[in-house]
Amino acid sequence: MKSLYLLLLILLLTMPLYWANAQETKIPQKLSEIPDSLKSIGGFLDWFDTIMFSFFLFLGIAAVIVILYSAALFMFSGDEKREKAKAYLKWGIVGIIVAIAAGSIITLILNVLRGK
What we know:
Blueprint: H1 2-20, H2 36-39, H3 41-76, H4 79-114
């Protein structure tokens, strides 16, 4: 039950990020309806960059929330839950490192493909 509350908290905290960038989208039915910005490789790379940035932003926010949860669990629980809090802290730090490293690698690859 606590993991469900944690998931709902993460969703509630990250929803404004998606609402701020929300647009009305229409699924293209024909090739001629695909926006010109996605027909070229540069447009596709920009689209891919946006999707990946959003994903790793969400992953980083989730990792920070896990770290905050582990800190609260460590401070306000007894000895039996401190080991669990340490494990949450460890995996929260791993999540931040993965988000930063993967985002950097994808940015590097996209910059190479763009010729920058």
